[in-house]
């Protein structure tokens, strides 16, 4: 009994929705629009549909997305966290052999102040702020993200061309903002492997 | 109809707007000069960031809000042919907004609110700045209320009649602003002020940015709608022709109001606190909102073509030459459209979900919004001022040729200022720096562009002074001996509308559509902050 009443209600509301849409379409057709205007609106819609299609396909099938990993962290306790403790910052190889770079932004520098990474290699950056809003951009590359206190900004990219690049803070963070920058060396892949294995060997010999 | 009360109301608002404008213009020129490093004695981040914060607030909040209120009152009264509803309330709105402006200006000018116009929590300004900004917005809400009441009263008195297009557009803007300002109002009332007063210890910077993004995109359409209104309701008549399509204009205003709201995340593409799906959704909406602008471009150019041909222009392009280029409204519309085409192209790049990474927070962005706001939009504010001023003060304009020179120099100056600005962005220069201290070869490429910007800024400053001089001179001139009879003329449509379907003549349906779209696009992204394990930030100085 009750169920029937509910079904009847659903029918009614769907019916009124359909009526509304039908009514809306009739009204839409009744307004006067010049045929040239209609053509232009169609062209505009097509252009916009094309642009949206390119972006959507790139996002879904090629994984072209802006940095969007929603991950929180206590910015006041970075030094106590394991991941962003001072000894753990900079370039590291993770268990899968992928390169992960952990960086802390704070007024007014990026820490560590200088890092070296290989060219043409997938690199995952994890940026955190220890105080206010920052942003980081390495000009002429895709390495750009906001660094919001309370969140980890993760971005994966690669640098096609070796060279010395500045790392610039691109978000106002206080009166010393101009001075907030550091350096990154992008080294040819084969040289980087050589230098990192030397470093690893040195570390090992030191440990001995 | 004796509209002395309305004229005084409109004039007072417009003067506050333009005084804010000229002060901010001087600051703008100082900023390009300081930033270039040409005069080492000027170098001071303290003064620069105080100046850039004030420049942004004056241009983005004071010029626009007061201009829109003054223009709105006069449009409402002249298009509906009724007095402004509740004059006392309108004046109280004016005084509240003015009090707010002064209250915000004191900490800004003394360097106690160098947080730029986008607030930047968890950096804190002096609490007076937040109260001032709130009062400015509260005053503008009174204007919104008056516009909505006048719209409704007119509809009741004239059932089934189409609301005049000028009033339809103004009401669309009033509703848009009520929706738009809610985001920043929540941020200020629940985050900025409690933090500044010490009622709460921490704020979530991610939530603050999300709330500001609610406001940050539609606010530019709030600024732009008066320019589009002039395109539709003044330009065709001033060019000597007719509006190509009244219905298309209404459709454009509706889509602008509806779709400029649920798309603010294109300001957060590079942010870590929102997920990619939401960003993509807002990104698609951003492209949708380009449609009403494309339609506006078409309708306005078609209206100009009709005028050009009526004036004897022949051939595919002959009508362009026969347009009345010496009419300040027509000239502004042409220059405005040219800047809109270039600025719109840049905007599509900014809106592009992934390409945005290339230009995010670089000098490209202020280059873009100066072109599209200070160029496309503000040049139409000039045109409206030149058109209305004689009627507001009941005296002929002091000099039309000075107005034409002013408009041309504004256009040329804007080209010289913003082209190098865009290039600097592509060369990687960040936007919000007061001087270049990076010790890297890259900065050598920036120098010539910075110098060109000083020159562009200088032309703009001269142009702005001419504008103020012309308006002041018009008002201060002795009254003409014969009575001043010029009346405001609204363009007629080729096919005058006799009746309209209700959805093109009212906003009830569209308010519901906006509510649903806002719920979809901002519901989960805002609620997530209350379900995630988030960590707030304490307030910081700067």
UniProtKB/TrEMBL annotation, chain A:
EC number per UniProt: 1.9.3.1
MF terms in GO: copper ion binding; cytochrome-c oxidase activity; oxidoreductase activity
Transmembrane helix recorded as keyword: yes
Gene3D superfamilies: Cupredoxins - blue copper proteins
PROSITE patterns to which the protein is assigned, alphabetical: COX2, COX2_CUA
Stretches that traverse the bilayer: 40-61
Coiled coil: none
GO cellular component entries: cell envelope; membrane
InterPro entries from the UniProt entry: CcO_II-like_C, Copper_CuA, Cupredoxin, NosZ/Cyto_c_oxidase_sub2
Annotated protein name in UniProt: Putative cytochrome c oxidase, subunit II (CbaB)
Organism: Crenothrix polyspora
Automatic annotation (TrEMBL), chain B:
Keywords: Electron transport, Membrane, Oxidoreductase, Respiratory chain, Transmembrane, Transmembrane helix, Transport
Enzyme category, top tier: oxidoreductase
Annotated EC: 1.9.3.1
PROSITE patterns: COX1, PROKAR_LIPOPROTEIN
GO biological process assignments: aerobic respiration
Domain Cytochrome oxidase subunit I profile, chain residue ranges per copy: 1-528
Keyword Membrane: yes
Top-level lineage group: Bacteria
GO molecular function, one term: oxidoreductase activity
Matches recorded under InterPro entries: Ba3-like_Oxidase_I, Cyt_c_oxase-like_su1_dom, Cyt_c_oxase-like_su1_sf, Cyt_C_Oxase_1
Regions crossing the membrane: 12-33, 53-76, 88-109, 129-151, 172-200, 212-235, 247-269, 281-307, 328-349, 369-389, 401-423, 451-472, 513-532
Any one GO CC term of the record: membrane
UniProt keyword annotation of Transmembrane present: yes
Protein name: Cytochrome c oxidase subunit 1
Organism: Crenothrix polyspora
Lineage: Bacteria, Pseudomonadati, Pseudomonadota, Gammaproteobacteria, Methylococcales
